[in-house]
Write a structure and sequence with these properties.
The complex is a heterodimer of chains A (330) and B (279). Chain A is of the alpha+beta class. Chain A is 29% helix and 24% strand. In chain B, the strands form 3 sheets. A 7-stranded antiparallel beta sheet of chain B has the order 4-3-7-1-2-6-5. Chain B has a 7-stranded mixed beta sheet with strand order 11-10-9-8-12-13-16, sandwiched between helices. In chain B, strands 14-15 form a two-stranded antiparallel ribbon. Classes of the chains: A alpha+beta (330), B alpha/beta (279).
């Protein structure tokens, strides 16, 4: 395998930054997230970042088009498309899996989301294997291998003192060639992965949920939920969005921004009717979506076991505990 | 040439095209029909009956409406004033430029209706989506059997599409129109009473029925239809949910694993019974 000493990783990133906008896991304004690489970023390689990489492809707020509205007239103008090639270094298996979910949403079923597709196509992915699970990780339970991601161009391996690189795609091969001058060939063994603290037995859950729409479990599960939406923002697969406009005088920009199924207004109709009027319906929809509706529509779970919602929920809602409750429900 | 469904999918589906409102018809005190055409006087898109379009005054908002009819060079949307955008739409005048994108959704299963006697049931603004199908049946009259329309509104003033109801449709061969209002009022010598009871009283024997109206109308009409012997696959309705993207991505219009903007808005009772009752 091609390897480099860990402390020399910035040299690799520096070199790649000549051709790409390189995004790396780093501490930025007190939060760990993917951040444009520069010499003084605070790299975070020991654990996954708090903010998922979805905002690289699906920004929290994104301009869609411009318009000018004056009296009866209207002009609509599309925005110029960015051309810059991007590269994410250090994306973990759980987050790679989330891109597979997002690809289903944004690129299939008859309509292609141009905003997403554009960014997805010009972003190369260097995955980084995990050495040990964090406190709330349970990716393995969701069918994710923490040491081998799906859909990466290069799989990098955390070898403790060193980092190893293995090209997966043709694009990955090209990227590896660019940095080959910095790498040495070495026989290595990939360190074994530790024991997961959290586990979930998902077997049969999507099927069982089909008959559980009216089950009393939802009133019970949703009781402590604050509908704050934190889980949906830190979730790498949650993708609901709102469309709104920013208007200044005659000029405006149409934007889309992350929305959350936890919010009452999300489904509130103009005439006043709301099909999901209380937190019971909203919490039910969130878990049904992840574990039942999404698998039914796209043949994959909408949870990758990254554990972010478990860590960030202010009232300690834990999706693995909910899966267990579903399993045990009569 | 109007933009076809395939072309719509190739262009950015979330960005509307500019269009203009060429005619506004005041249907009732709170319903207006807007006739919309492109800047070069073409249909903005060519919808199937029952399909939807996203109409916007970009500075104020964008919302999904059913296309109630299409002409040679325009489409029509009948819109009730209920919220921020629709109130603003009711303020605009002819010549107003708007954003529009579509068509969205599945539309009515036209092949299924071919050669059949059809009963259309509408309440209030619920006639808007059904009208697109009625107009299709009239345009291609020979493809369909007997057409019967039962339509009700709160009062005479609240009846939409009066010209169709009282002048145009009764003249169509083998087509009957039955109109009712909720309460007696001066100057009305037609039927008085609610739609579900009227449907039962008229005792139709058609093969397929399309109904759309307020939930309370649907709730009470369904037992009447079942009593009349309709099978679940022959009871067809349209649903509405809050929508933002219109293309099955933004998430909010789901009923179970199905998205109303993409897989609907037209559903048979058979399909609805398989979905969670969350609409």
């Amino acid at each position: 395998m091609k390897i480099i000493a860990k402390e020399r990783l910035p040299e690799v990133l520096q070199l790649l930054a000549k051709d790409y906008n390189v995004l790396v896991p780093a501490k930025f304004e007190g939060v760990t997230r993917f951040t444009p690489y520069s010499g003084d970023v605070e790299l975070v390689l020991e654990e996954n970042v708090l903010m998922p990489p979805k905002d690289i492809f699906f920004p929290q707020t994104e301009k869609m088009y411009k318009f000018k509205a004056k009296n009866k007239s209207l002009e609509i103008e599309e925005l110029p498309v960015e051309k810059e090639e991007q590269l994410i270094f250090g994306i973990r298996s759980c987050d790679l899996k989330s891109l597979e979910c997002l690809d289903q949403v944004f690129l299939t079923k008859g309509y292609v989301d141009h905003f997403y597709k554009d960014k997805r196509e010009r972003t190369a992915l260097i995955a980084l294997s995990c050495v040990r699970p964090q406190e709330a990780c349970f990716c393995h339970s969701m069918g994710v291998d923490p040491q081998n991601g799906v859909g990466a161009d290069i799989q990098a391996y955390d070898l403790k003192e060193k980092i190893g690189f293995k090209a997966i795609s043709e694009k990955g091969q090209e990227i590896l060639e660019k940095i080959s001058g910095l790498l040495a060939e070495e026989e290595v063994s990939i360190p074994s992965f530790g024991e997961f603290n959290l586990k979930a037995d998902i077997e049969g859950v999507p099927e069982k949920l089909q008959g559980m729409f009216e089950h009393p479990i939802w009133a019970d599960i949703s009781r402590k939920c604050l509908n704050c939406g934190a889980c949906t923002y830190v979730c790498p697969t949650c993708h609901c969005f709102d469309i709104d406009s920013e208007v200044r005088g005659e000029d405006g920009v149409k934007i889309r921004c992350w929305d959350s199924c936890m919010f009452g207004e999300y489904t509130q109709m103009a005439g006043g009717h709301n099909p999901r009027p209380t937190k019971k319906e909203r919490v039910r929809n969130r878990f049904m979506h992840k574990l039942r509706y999404f698998p039914e529509r796209y043949q994959m779970l909408l949870c990758t076991g990254c554990g972010r919602c478990v860590i960030k929920c202010p009232v300690n809602m834990d999706i693995t505990a909910i899966i267990k409750k579903i399993k045990e429900a009569e | 040439m109007a933009v076809t469904v395939e072309q719509v999918k190739e262009i950015n589906p979330l960005v509307p095209i500019k269009a203009k409102v060429i005619k506004i018809v005041q249907e009732t005190p709170d319903v207006k029909t807007f006739h919309i055409t492109t800047m070069d006087d073409k249909k903005p898109f060519d919808p199937l009956p029952g399909q939807l379009g996203m109409l916007s005054l970009p500075a104020i908002g964008e919302a999904m409406f059913s296309v109630t009819n299409k002409g040679e060079n325009h489409i029509e949307m009948a819109i009730k004033s209920v919220g921020k955008l629709t109130e603003a739409l009711h303020e605009i005048e002819e010549g107003q430029e708007v954003g529009i994108r579509g068509p969205y959704g599945n539309g009515f299963p036209l092949d299924y209706f071919k050669g059949k006697d059809i009963l259309f049931i509408g309440g209030g603004i619920g006639l808007a989506p059904v009208r697109s199908l009625i107009m299709e049946c009239i345009r291609n009259r020979e493809n369909y059997g007997k057409l019967s329309v039962v339509y009700g509104a709160r009062s005479k003033a609240d009846l939409c599409f009066k010209e169709d109801l009282f002048e145009n449709w009764p003249k169509v061969p083998n087509m009957d129109v039955y109109v009712t209002i909720d309460r007696e009022e001066e100057g009305w010598d037609g039927h008085v009473g609610f739609v579900p009871a009227y449907v039962e009283e008229l005792a139709f024997n058609p093969q397929v029925t399309v109904l759309c109206g307020p939930p309370v109308m649907i709730k009470f009409t369904l037992p009447a239809l079942q009593k009349m012997g309709f099978a679940d696959q022959d009871i067809i309705t349209t649903l509405e949910m809050r929508m933002k993207c219109g293309i099955g991505k933004c998430g909010r219009c789901n009923i179970g694993s199905c998205y109303v903007c993409l897989d609907g808005p037209v559903f048979t009772m058979e399909q609805l019974k398989k979905l969670p009752p969350e609409y």
